Amino acid sequence: MTTTLEKEWKYYRIELIWSLVLQGQMYSLEKQEAFLLKCLNAEHWDNLHISRYECVTIEMVLAHPTYPWDYRSLSANPTITWDIVKQHPHLPWDSMMLSINKNITWEIVQQNPQFVWNFRAMSANPNITMEIIKQHPTPSQKSHQDGHWNLSNKWDMKYFSYNPNLQLQDILHHAKSQAWQWEQVTIHPNITLDMILHHSLFWVCWRMDLVSKNPNITIQQIIQHPQFAWNLSDFVRHSKHVPLDMFTFPNKYTRLSSHRYTYDEYVMYNPNAVLLPEQGMPFTTITMAHDLVPFFDNPLHTEKQLFFAKRYKINMLHELIEWYFHPSHYATIRSHGHS
Known about the structure:
This protein is mainly alpha-helical. Helices cover 45% and strands 1% of the residues.
């Protein structure tokens, strides 16, 4: 029987090692592929996580057909193109995930009406704009099974809420007729606090409890609008405008929020993070294995990798991490922390 500890170990091992080896810059493509195939052949690896990484190519999949590839994740993999799908129609491609794939353009969809596209999911595809939706308001298709029109397969503004092309005018245009994913709309990169404040019509819709996650929020806006329950931890993780004196002079800002924040979460989570000089740098001790997940999961450039390698004395070798998160060692880490 699998214990809870072994399940946790499996999860952290997958997330940490795969993000390190496959998203980092520590290994050549040849070593990545060798490590990938080795792990795919082991029972304790979750193939869903593996199939989504860009180092997984169609050549690798075809060369190892007996390996447990997850075609749902593979269908959204940015290495998969429509030409590949056409060349290998026998593979179990996932319609929903393929419709989201950034390599699928509207021209491809129009030229291939025989494929059962998922227009709900496609609403989030970065190649889809509101202009396309307006020009093709009912892109329903006939079902391959019974030949009837599938009227439920249509554009969905909840999915479009995640589309990077979303603009305020799109929300205004569909204010009455469409349901938006307001949690995502509130923190969308194309939405600002000024837009939120000037459109009180949607006041019951805006998720002000999440607005601290909006990347356009500035510390000046937080100071100017104390009526909102700001979360500075969310702010330092997501904002493009985090002032570095929040870490060198933290007492200056603690009155603005009841939520604590650290320099480490800023560097770990925020893709726009700026590294402070080493001297006088604030320090937070990592005591739990899962505290390292955002470090490996966040796309990191070489400077950040070197920063964390020195800061936490992490040996960037997957053999050490595999040892580190073995149940017998993880139990000790979980109980007592580590140095």
